[in-house]
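Worked example 4.2. Below are the chains of a multi-component assembly; read each line carefully before continuing.
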Amino acid sequence: MTSPSAPATSVSRHSSPPVLTPERPLAWPKRTTKTLANGLEVVLAESRTFPKISAQLYFRSGNAGVAYSAPGLAEMTATVVRTGTRSRSSRQIEEDLRRMGASLGTSAGADASAISVSGLAEFSSPLLELLADLARNASFPEGEFERERRQRYEELKVDRTTPSFLANERLRRVLFGAHPYAVVAPTEEQVAAFRREQLVEFYRDHYVPVGSLLLVVGDFSTDFMFDQVQKVFASWGGPKPEQPTSPAPPRQSGRRVHLVRMPGTVQAHVLVGNVAITRRDPDWYRLTLANSIYGGAFHSRLVLNIREQKGYTYSPGSSVHALSQQGYFTVRAAVRNDVVGATLAEIFYEMDRMRALRVTPGELESARQYLTGVFSLGVATQNGLLGQLSVVYLDVLSEDYLETYRERINALTADDVVTAARHHFDSANAQIVVVGDPVQIGDQAALFGPVTQYDSRGAVSVN
Amino acid sequence: MSPRKLQIPVEHATFANGLRVVASPDRSAPFVTVGVYYQIGFRLEPRGRSGFAHLFEHMMFQGSENAGKMEHIRLVNSSGGLLNGTTNYDITNYFESVPSNALERVLWLEADRMRALKVDEENLRNQRDVVKEEVRVNVLNQPYGGFPWLDLPPVAFRNWPNAHNFYGDFADLDAATLADVQQFFRTYYAPNNAVLLMLGDLEPAEALAFARRYFEDIPRQPSPPRADVSEPPQTDERRGEVAEKLGPLPALAIGYTMPERETSDWYAAAILDRVLHGGRAGRVYRKLVLDEQMAVDVDGNADLLETNGPTQMVTRIFHKPEFTSEGTVAVFDEVIEELQHRGTAHDELEDVKVKFRSDYYSMLEGGMGSYMPRFGLMHYLACFTLFDGDPQRINTILDGFLSVTPDRIQSVAKKYLVPGNRAVLLRRPVNRGGAS
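Applying the procedure described above to all two chains together yields the following structure tokens:
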């Protein structure tokens, strides 16, 4: 205790963070875009660090187009597509994939259906052939259809016990009303009622080359890959599908609370939202920036407030969702039961603060750096690159979207952020969904608007 | 086309304070991924302090000597990057992906919190609350939450380090004190118990110089005590049952304890796992989902590369309610018996190896939903350094897996896939209808 203290060794290099050195410029890979004679748009980009390729084939028809005739039909169709073609059984498809070191995904969202493959570059030709086979010759074997339908039925029962699923399903209903984006999943009864012929018909009408999009990235030379694509897709044909028109979502007046009952749960799932904009809207960049300052990043205001200061929740956040016809803004937090009211108060306080006051220059600069940096991380992996390319080409954004994103974000000001918040963080009319125990959270939620209660199947419940 | 063999450049140094440093340049995009891995995981946390290793991981984001609360997060996000940390069986990691001009800044941050954690009671209270909500959102309020990673170890193992609640009992979390936090930090968060990894858009010599500048004078600590994680020999099958409060389907987990790391059985077991669990072509999925149609979903894996102690190959089965769990296990057993009696076909094994190689590359490239480039490369380099003392294994380990023979697969199946080496856990639904 009496020995002399060591000389101060904590030199200045340790006491403050090093400044950033100049950035090395980012180069997005060149895209080669060609439209085949049959109308298939092909986008190729080389990404050669790892000896793999990834391809995604998108059809611009999804569950929205069937939301009021056969909800979930696009998804069911995609699920069964992988279970057989005219020349390959389900088992053959899975074994062929494994032989090529490949993975396959088939899925459908609201706006599009997709077949995705990735595998070793040494098998790129047979892998493309398999992709084309699934796109052109799916056979929908009766037994496989029945099996997949039953699996989907059981999965839906699990979904209806999952708080985040129930919250999202209810919010979409409330925000989109008669618009088909209101429907995120079929009921079990609707799944049980699917017939194989419906899938065959959806596939025939919508899995066609015209208007569809094939993205391929990976370890190949563009000329070689384009020849391969031409070889397996050029002879494909089919008429252009009709695109149904959709009614507008309802205008909300006033906040309302929608409580999905899960009696006895130890936590409440809070989801707040309002209709916003698509990526093609000129406000998209400013809204993205405002969202990132509000709750879209770890260092955002909402996370700092309700997680790091108050400890209400583990995973709070806000998001902007861009579907093709409409977009929406959401704020989420899974919180302990006794702080549902306090959480909602902070969610709206932070929204109103964004609407009323300019963000600080420091916050603005941090958010710009964050958005442009994380956006660019996509260049470093094949999947990341595919994700960014699908945004550009599915949403039909300008060809230089990737290259100009940084300068567009960096041009935004604190006034832009306030403007975006005033237009798109609609705190006065936002809809509040809470999933949890009505006895423990009902009174707290009622402080924020008139409450309607639902059961997990969506029926309005009176008590 | 012929296969291209991937060669990852790896440079490796050990500083005087015991810190191991690995650099791997890849100039294809202007990003770096940086990780610090400490050789402490939930297996090694103090007895009576379940969940402490994970709670502590949260505390590492609460402030250090020169970067206060939220500063780590703000400095990384505002450099254009992402960060996170995770707690695993045998390691806890902290990592960032940032534009490469922030390399030095990120090293400064990681060094600052390795040098001196600076947290208070308020931080601890706050993060204890956050962790409880994490447990609620991921386990208690989620259908099949914690299945089976929290349910199975207490059934499968007898030694507390392997068999306790890794997320932590709330009473244990409440009992954690600031003194525990500082003690844990001193014991385990020392340079000689860690590896620093720097990957991506960097010159190794320059990156190593930065690392020296910030890490080299962090004092070495006495080597942490080696916890005894060995398991007593098992002779009979172990069974357990847990109530599923939300989900409507019965769920089964079947775990077989795996061979020791780096033995020849271990290599064969990794391939055996893919024969059984390699997606829809895997034998278990094919039998239970496609052929017999008893199960709605099946998957499984053995995380052999990233563990360094008793570990299991685990099969997860969600079966239809009209089948019994016993009947489902019996059909699963047919798959195992067939493999033991007939082994694998030559083509099947070759195909599994192709897929293994492909998956290995995917893991190196992204590995965590691909949102962090080279996450898997970082993760494996860390495990090879900390567990095997050799990061160069990243370039040679595949050879071991790809040279496994059909005979080895069959003999490992006979030796390890036996009732006396397994645990079966049933998650039984308390209601079939879901929420009211």
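Take a moment to check your reading of the output against the notes. Chain B has a mean pLDDT of 95. The radius of gyration of chain B is 22 Å.
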